[in-house]
Write a structure and sequence with these properties.
There is one protein chain. By secondary structure, the chain is mainly α. It has one domain. Helix content is about 75%, strand content about 0%. It contains five helices and no strands. The radius of gyration is 19 Å and the shape is elongated. It starts with a helix and ends in a 12-residue tail after the last helix.
Length: about 90
């Protein structure tokens, strides 16, 4: 993931230009989005082992036992657009 982030960061200008052409984003927003993607890749690369740690899941399960709330109740509700065909 770090190697992919390096590739993205080495070509921010052309990738931002591509986003501008394909989606009509202003170049400043496109540049920020490309930079955000590289930062996200580095975040997940840096924390991959922690995310795979089974103790993290155990902590979530323990929280459910203590609060009596199911995991789904703790998640943010997602509202689908009315035009969604799902």
């Amino acid at each position: 993931m770090n190697a992919a982030a390096d590739v993205i960061e080495s070509d921010i200008v052309s990738l931002a230009g591509l986003l501008t052409l394909e989606m009509g984003k202003p170049i400043a927003q496109a540049t920020a989005e490309v930079t955000k993607c590289a930062h996200a890749m580095r975040f997940y690369a840096r924390n991959a082992e922690a995310f795979r740690d089974p103790r993290v899941l155990q902590l979530v399960d323990d929280l459910e036992v203590m609060t009596g709330k199911r995991r789904q109740e703790n998640r943010r509700n997602v509202l689908w657009p009315r035009s969604c065909a799902c």
